[in-house]
Design goal:
Blueprint lengths: L2 E7 L7 E6 H5 L14 H10 L1 E2 L6 E4 L6 H13 L28 H24 L1
Length: about 140
């Protein structure tokens, strides 16, 4: 899997942390990468990757050189996400406490914001339940 150079921004830290990690680590380091815990389809991933992230403002942020992935790299990434126990990335990525789920019902959504709304409409309650279960 390809490695990516990116910056991790934390709230109230004067300088971002320079990172060089595999794509799967970046995915688990981006705030809100998967809406309500659902891993996005290729076209939405590419919208996110093409954006280049942000400094986060008053929240943590992640920034990288805008890029994209092809269908083969997406398939490799999705398989890694399906099989990886995310907690194994806990020392590398901020949001590695909840595994992404997949819902093929959203594979045809082409717009990131449209996807966020549709996915969370369906999965919000279950995602919050998973988060509560982890906290217990």
């Amino acid at each position: 899997m390809r490695t990516i150079r990116y910056l991790r921004h934390e709230y109230m830290w004067p300088r971002p942390e320079r990172r060089h990690a595999q794509l799967i680590v970046l995915v688990y380091d981006i705030p809100y990468f998967g809406a309500c815990g659902i891993f996005p389809p290729l076209q939405v991933c590419n919208q996110i990757f093409a954006h280049g992230g942000s400094q986060g403002g008053m929240s943590p942020g992640t920034a990288w050189k805008p890029s994209g992935i092809d269908a083969c790299e997406y398939a490799e990434l999705a398989e890694a996400v399906r099989t990886l126990e995310p907690r194994t990335l806990a020392d590398k990525a901020r949001y590695a406490h909840v595994a992404f789920a997949f819902d093929s019902g959203f594979d045809r959504i082409a717009d990131h914001l449209e996807g966020v709304h549709a996915v969370c409409e369906k999965h919000r309650e279950a995602f919050h339940r998973r988060l509560r279960d982890l906290a217990d």
